[in-house]
Design brief:
It is a single chain. Helix 9 crosses helix 10. The protein contains 13 helices and two strands, in the order E-H-H-H-H-E-H-H-H-H-H-H-H-H-H. The chain folds into three domains: 83 residues, DnaJ domain (Helix Hairpins, Orthogonal Bundle); 34 residues; 163 residues, Sec63 N-terminal domain-like domain (Sec63 N-terminal domain-like fold). The longest helix has 29 residues. The chain has a two-stranded antiparallel sheet with strand order 1-2.
Length: 298
Amino acid sequence: MLRRPTIHSSAPRAQILGLSIGASERDIKRAYRTLSLTHHPDKPGGNAELFQKIAKAHEALTDPVARANFEEFGNPDGRQAMEVSIGLPAWLVEGFAQWGFLSLYVGGLCVALPALMFYCWRSGRDRGPNGLNPGTFEWLKYRVQPDTSVKTLPSILAGCWEFGRQQPLNPEADSPALQRLLSEMSEEGRMAKPVRPEKSVIPPELILRNDVVIHAHLNRKPVGTPTLAAVQANILAKAEPALALMLEIAVARTLAPPAQRIPPHLEAAFAIIEFGQMVRNGGGGARAGCDDYGRSGE
């Protein structure tokens, strides 16, 4: 619904003086004199509000510019901005229904909207630039060093936040299988010594578990239990973003200005690329097969 706004009153100035649009100045002055005497606040039966409207109508109609604006635009100040409003059905804003509509509006504004904003904030708090938890970024930033190699990368990947807290350790079901895998791969020289979990974002026992299932994948060994298989599938599904973040850290440090005195991480970048190929191929990479990986940890 569109309407033309007025500033002082919703009634046209000429109608306030009892005249039609286009009345002469003489008729305007005569009408103003008569009505102002009749409705003056100091006279018995006077009306201060109506007297004020009469005075404003006389002022608008006697000033040439204001009168031209009023006759053309309906306002003595000239063209005004158009107002837009929404027409709601009467049944929605009258009677009992208006309280239901008001309750829905207040509930949505004061309850639903804040709850949605809190949910978005809570969800986004645990996600960084690569869709990874900020704790993972801090862990990788600390662990990726110039001497990072293929044999240390499984332990680094195993310490990411995404591979710990969502899948707790099940000692009764998983410990025997983990111990068997750890013994087998250690004896065969196919598993490097895990890195020390300094500044880890998940418990050390979970890092060791993840490290063992990653090595089992690289050496193409079955993990033995459904729980460990689910952990391994989760790691492989989310390994790409973590590897991409590792490579980004290594490249950024390699290209850092000399003034920052950061040692080059070029070898670490190459190791991350090679390790990523091995993860994707189940141990077989462009330059390293399953057997080559195991012996690299010796």
